[in-house]
Amino acid sequence: MTRDSRFDILFEPIKIGPVTAKNRFYQVPHCNGMGRLYPDSMIAMRGMKAEGGWAIVATEQCDFHPSADVTPFTETKLWADQDISYLAGMCNAVHQHGGLAAVELVHNGQDTGNLYSREVPIGPAHRPVTWHNHPVQARAMDLKDIQDYRRRHRKAALRAKQAGFDMVVVYAGHDGAMPSHFLSSRHNQRTDEYGGSLENRLRFYREILEDTLDAVGDCMGVIARFAVDEMMGADGLEWQHEGRDAIEMMAELPDLWDVNVSNWDNDSMTSRFAVEGYQEDYVAFVKQVTSKPVATVGRYTSPDAMVSAIRRGIVDMIGAARPSIADPFLPKKIEEGRLEDIRECIGCNICAAWSNLSAPSRCTQNPTFGEEWRKGWHPEQVTPKASDSHVLVVGAGPAGLEAAHALGKRGYKVTLAESRKEAGGRVTRESALPSLNAWARVRDYRLGQIAAMDNVQMYFESELGADDILEFGADHIALATGSIWRRDGVGRAVREPLTGANAERSFSPDDIMDGRRPPKGSVVVFDDDHYYMGSVMADLLAGEGYQVTLVTPGLCVGSWTEYTLEQGHIEKRLLDLGVEILPRHCVSAVGDSVIKLVNLVTGEQLERSGTLVPVTMRLPNDQLYESLDTLNARVEDANIKSIRRIGDCYGPATIAAAVYEGHRYARELDAKIDPDGVPFKTVTYDLALGG
Ligand code: ADP
Ligand code: SF4
Question: Which terminus of the chain faces fewer neighbouring Cβ atoms within 10 Å, N or C?
């Protein structure tokens, strides 16, 4: 297939200083929890992006000196010559596929507590460090500190050149780097030439950019990554005022402007809070004030939206982090006219969560992300089938759909049976909840792929029992029958069913998604899940006119969503809707239209009127598995070689986990797996002592 000519503009080369990008796809720097700790994984993941057609592939943040040590986060580092070799590995992987490799040099300044390096943090002013509220202060830099900083940054740029990078990103974004701290009048109240007027506050960034251009600008592209708006009104940088003035003052300095909004929670908003291209309003002015190329992000997954952003003169290059994670082959697929094969990011930020937890990142849509080296999984290729087995997959939620899709791709004959009228399981149901519509992409991508496969048959309204399965004649059975929310309050804080939590007085998320509703009036959402579902229930019911109290044993509503960068957005939305939030409280009993609560700190008892909506935990729908287990002899007679539970039916978890388990099942069918072995490659490091 060839691409549609309306997308040609996306494949026009563009000159960025001394280098030329082969097309308009720029994988902007993004964290991934691999970096310096799992360099092989990081290298293979970045190489995959280049293979998928991204013209520029950048590192995550790369710390360039121990005075800003990012521990406990896992990013790349370029502190010394010994750090060059693994980054050279990344450059090679990117170059092999014709991409340009970019390094993002970062110093987190007053944000980081330097837990590993034990250096005293530095910043424009004396300030307590911000991350984790560590009991540590950053000391105000004097002019010598600024000279030291500039020298170190310059050395790092030279090391990057030695590693083979083609571009340097000089970072002033996310309210998280020294140049942005100097720029902000919130952080910088200096009275010397680096404080006061905008020109003075910008001096630090200008000098770093000039140093970098001077050191490597003859052969490397220099990218200014700059946040033009902090989305906090007059309390922060605004694009109409100092954001614009700053760009105007340095307009022709860098080779490429990579502009966005700040902080990270705003830059990487989930689809629950922002639509594709939402940053355009903030950055549209940039191209009007510079002749240099401009890039921005905005979770672009639609080629038409990308073309439109370029044609309307907003940008020259499409920046992407999450869309490149969900589909490393996005550019190739557009180039080859295979739009229906694009795996669109759903904007859930599971990728960010894993990175924020200092673990190798994973992706809901792309189960191979992070497994490129460790398991040798390629996002577009699978090994052909190893037998002529026929596989019956029961349940077409994310686990069943992905298993059927990947098995079908391997060439197996697959039958997928689903009891409901439609596919998608929990993603279909949850995508009908407020602001979660993008989650349906998990279903739609897989349905689209399966539709093109002759070897995969789908049957709806086909609820299978044990007898049906035994009589069906398949060789392997995958049970992807999902899970169901508990209605009795049991979860982390409550270990025995709550007195009185019966079907009339307690409505689980499944009840609500099935269309059942408590009597009009008040409800108490009991969120002991701490992820999104509690707040989504509160959002839905408040929107329908219920008086909602959200009770949670957590320190705040949806405490786990700190990791997905959503917590602040969620809390604001619920407060705007008039939801009462009671953190550090638990439900103790359920009566007729009254819910008894307890304050977990003081022990104080209190009550709220209304019906309970517990969001606590799910139980696997594994009755089918249990029945088959009791029919051993018949299973043998039916020549069934294996029966496996996958996804929520095996262990209820995230949608990402269900997709992953479905994919893994398909990859491992007919493979010899050591049940006692580590199921992925690991590295043994040479020990300096005693090894
Ligand atoms: P997962 O996240 O593991 O994919 P879901 O709950 O999203 O789980 O999906 C499970 C799917 O399995 C649902 O669509 C449900 O209707 C279907 N299902 C459950 N039991 C059966 C059964 N006995 N026969 C066919 N389909 C079933
Ligand atoms: Fe997109 Fe979610 Fe994948 Fe991140 S984890 S890339 S947000 S689909």
Answer: C
Nearest bound ligand to the CA of residue 483? 1
Site residues for ligand 2, CB cut-off 6 Å:
322, 325-326, 345-351, 363-365
Q: Distance (Å, rounded) from C-alpha 83 to C-alpha 557?
A: 41
The DSSP secondary-structure symbol of 670 reads: T
- C-alpha distances in Å from residue 203, one per residue of 77, 206, 249, 638: 25, 5, 10, 77
Amino acid at 249: M
Across 194-212, average pLDDT:
98
pLDDT digits (tens, 9 = 90+) for 325-343: 999 999 999 999 999 999 9
The rounded distance, in Å, linking the Cα atoms of 299 and 322 is: 7
| Among the bound ligands, the one closest to the CA of 564 | 2
**Distances in whole angstroms, Cα of residue 71 to Cα of each of 134, 180, 190:** 12, 20, 28
400 CB less than 6 Å from ligand 1?
A: yes
Q: Tens digit of pLDDT for each residue in 235-250?
A: 899 999 999 999 999 9
Whether residue 179 contacts residue 262, with contact meaning beta carbons closer than 8 Å, is answered with: no
Among 166-170, 264-268, 294-298, which is the least confidently predicted range? 264-268
Q: Is the CB of 417 under 6 A from ligand 1?
A: yes
> What pTM did the predictor assign?
0.97
Residue holding tokens 């605004």?
238
CATH for 390-482+621-668 is 3.40.50.720
Considering the domain delimited by 486-618, tell me its CATH architecture.
3-Layer(bba) Sandwich (3.50)
- Distances from the Cα of 294 to the Cαs of 49, 263, 383, in angstroms? 21, 20, 41
C-beta neighbour count of 660 within 10 angstroms: 26
- Give CA–CA dist 101/93, Å, rounded: 9
**Exposure pattern of 433-458 as b/e (b: 16+ CB <10 Å)?**
bbbbebbbbbbbbbbebbeeeebbeb
Instruction: Report the alpha-carbon distance of residue 78 to residue 59 in Å, rounded.
Output: 11
Contact 620, 453 (CB under 8 A): no
Contacts (Cβ under 8 Å, ≥6 apart) of 568: 265
CA of 676 to the centre of ligand 1 (A): 29
Average pLDDT for residues 41-63, to the nearest whole number? 98
Q: Is 473 left (phi over 0), alpha (psi -120 to 50) or beta?
A: left
Annotated active-site residue in 38, 86, 149, 171 = 171
Structure tokens given for 187: 């952080």
**Does ligand 1 come within 6 angstroms of the Cβ of 418?**
yes
Task: Report CA(629)–ligand 2 centroid distance (Å).
Answer: 36
Contact indicator for 280, 577 with CB cutoff of 8 Å: no
- Domain ranges in the chain are 5-356, 390-482+621-668, 486-618
